[in-house]
Amino acid sequence: PEIRALGWTTVPDDFNARFSAQARQYKYFIVQQCRPSSGSAEPAAASLNIERMREAAQHFLGEHDFRNFCKADVTAVKTFRRRVMSFSIDPVGVADSESGCQVFALNLRGTAFLWHQVRCMAAVLLMVGRGQEDPGIVHTLLDIVATPCKPQFTMAAEEPLLLYACDFQDLHFRRTERAVEAYQEVLYAALSRNLVASALVSSMLTRTYSDSKTPVIGEVAGVSRSHVLLSKRPCEPSVEERARRLGLPWPHDAQVGDAAIAE
To answer: Distance between the two ends of the chain, CA-based, in angstroms?
Structure first.
């Protein structure tokens, strides 16, 4: 099952599992590829520049207006200001030496997050990692005076996103060793299945580099799609315009950390 209860605790009558959380921690997993050059066993340049992504991620730290890094919903959100307490990009213990792939995790912790905020943040960081955007684009998008409307871009995929932890004040969960061990067995089984699947794909990929290739006369190379800078793209309606269309006042009176729409 996708949901399991591993422990319990007593809570106040006004407790809300969503709005009583003081902080949330997300992980978003990405893959760094180092593909061999054509006709050579030497690794090519890495597919993502992790250091540039780390530089860009530092702009997220602190309290900012994240309207350009979410799916704006002016009917449910009173303020787009959120506080990111920490952000790091770290390698995890999953790698494949044959294919040159290394998994990294975007680790971020904040008081609350807006709808699709993490996936939008990840999408922009991946553009930076691929060399399509400068690390300073994060600062530019956080400046709602310079960038009052969100440029149109596709958010990162949902599958790599994990809500890793929530912090609650003065809550101490009771967990039985048996319940935890039973769930660990489920996770080990899932991990084993996915590691075997990864090994199968890696072996097939490695074989494609060892097979001989016959050049084809007149072969046409694939057409690459050029990247349009975020600063040059059409923009979505501003938050103020969205509210005006719905006949809602904006801004609402609110404090940072008001009811957030989670990922």
So the answer is: 21
